[in-house]
Each structure stands twice: as structure tokens, then as C-alpha cells.
Amino acid sequence: MEEAIVKAACAIGAGLCMGIGAIGPALGEGNAVSHALDGMARQPEASSTLRTNMIIGCAITETTGIYSLIIAFLLALNVF
Asked: What is the CATH T-level fold of the domain 2-76, as seen in this structure?
């Protein structure tokens, strides 16, 4: 019985980890793209610099989602 409770808690924890871990990158990337597009609309001559910085920022932001995915896999596979 206790083993079933632990497995259920791991599954719930993995689901919560992915759900909550996906909120931050989604909001961060949406905000970054929004402001980059606003800057490109205001200053078209700076669009290449803004685009490069936006892509780098989105890549860094996405690592948070990847970390939460790894933790969710570890919890789902009962590694801990």
C-alpha cells in the first residue's frame, strides 16, 4: 500500500513539475518576443540586433522548461 502511495505521489509530482515548470518559460518568451517586435516596429534598422538578442534570450529562458522536464522524467521513473 505504501509503495502505491509513493508511486502516485511521484506521478502527481511529475505532472505538477511539468505544469508549473512550463508557465515561467512561456510567459518569459512571450514577453521577450512581444517587446522585441515592438522594438522592431519602432526602429526597423535595429531589427537584426533585436532578433539576435531575442533568440538568445528565448534559448536561455527555455532551459528552465528543459530542467523541469528532466525532473519530471526522474520523478516519473522513481529515480529518487
From this structure: F1FO ATP Synthase (1.20.20)
